[in-house]
Design brief:
By secondary structure, this protein is mainly beta. Helix content is 4%, strand content 48%. The two termini are 37 Å apart.
Length: 349
């Protein structure tokens, strides 16, 4: 499901004063402020859309032809924020690793790479961790006003200079003419069909910045050599290998269905679903037991989910775990068997 959201018009946030808004400021703690007035934009309207893939965009500078600017926040998969309205008037402040969006009615959203910075935000600011923040400019247009059951924002967002092709068509495979592996920032500028286009992006650890001048798309790409800072380590359980015995019986075991499990370098990515509200309060762990005596050795894993949400929605999430602590000395491979997943995964290192 795709969610369109904006800021409520009847919410007053005492943490942000009118003077601060005019200066392009927001409080981030009692001792410091996030300040970037040179990037503060005031728009007649801002449209905000999120999808189930962790993409979140803010379209600004609306004209009769479309929107001239787009801010793109890349978050962990299946992270969506549900707000009710489609459009609002407000400001956008962008700093290298932070983005603040607030309405003229003072409700604010704040995105940052650093979890500590996110946690510092005062009451009234809705703060989320992200791994990529980019600004794209050109001319963008939404192809529909109906957003139910659309999983990818960029299927319904077109770039007018590119013959109205959806962004998902021409921006899926990028040629990193700027940036590339090892880069945390990049930018490009060009002109297509007499329309000035370009973009810039900043990325957190575990991702590299990729900017394609031929498509004017800038995004963060997961670094193949790293799980990224959104991953979680395995929780080891000192229990002998036995497929017939429950692994970590003292840990939560609320019902889930695993749809996909794959290994990429030292990471394992698991996609699963459960019944709940939105999954934001779920507590998950990936448990690892002791190894078998086979050759190559095997190790049991179990996805532990604590779910206390009282709703009837089917919620799907994807979690990434760092499996480097499963390596065995003097071995270079191990099979991983996940409880309730019928395929053995070979981890080579």
């Amino acid at each position: 499901m795709m969610l369109i959201f904006a800021f409520s018009c009847n919410y007053e946030n005492p943490q942000i004063t009118n003077q601060e808004k005019e200066a392009g400021l927001s409080k981030t703690s009692s001792k410091n402020k996030f300040q970037n007035p040179s990037n503060s934009e005031v728009s007649d309207s801002i449209v905000a859309i999120s999808d189930e893939r962790g993409n979140l965009i803010f379209l600004t500078k609306k004209t009769q032809e479309g929107f001239e600017e787009m801010y793109w926040v890349q978050m962990n998969e299946n992270k969506a924020i549900n707000i009710t309205d489609e459009m609002f008037m407000g400001h956008i402040n962008r700093e290298e690793q932070k983005l603040l969006v607030f309405s003229d009615n003072s409700l604010a959203y704040f995105f940052a790479f650093d979890e500590d910075v996110v946690q510092e935000q005062p009451d009234g600011i809705i703060a989320e961790k992200c791994y990529g923040i980019s600004k794209q400019y050109g001319l963008f247009r939404l192809t529909t006003n109906y957003f139910e059951n659309v999983s990818n924002i960029f299927d319904i967002l077109v770039s007018v200079p590119f013959s109205d092709l959806p962004l998902s068509e021409y921006g899926s495979e990028l040629d990193c003419t700027s940036g590339g592996p090892g880069a945390t920032e990049c930018s490009v500028d060009s002109s297509i069909a007499s329309v000035a286009t370009g973009c810039s992006v900043s990325c957190s650890d575990g991702f590299y910045a990729c900017c394609d001048s031929s498509t004017s798309v800038c995004k963060c790409v997961e670094d193949a050599e790293s799980c990224g800072d959104l991953s979680t380590p395995i929780v080891m359980v000192p229990q002998p290998y036995d497929p017939d015995e429950p692994l970590g019986p003292e840990e939560p075991d609320d019902p889930t269905i695993i749809y996909e499990a794959e290994i990429h370098n030292d990471c394992i990515r698991i996609t699963f679903s459960a019944i709940g509200c939105d999954g934001d309060t779920w507590k998950t762990k990936l448990l690892g037991g002791n190894i078998s005596e086979s050759n190559p050795p095997r190790r049991m894993l179990r996805l532990s989910v604590e779910n206390e949400e009282d709703c009837d929605n089917t919620v799907t999430k994807t979690m990434t775990y760092d499996i480097s602590n499963l390596q065995i000395e003097e071995k270079n491979e191990i099979y991983l068997n996940i409880v309730d997943w019928n395929e053995s995964l070979l981890y080579e290192y």
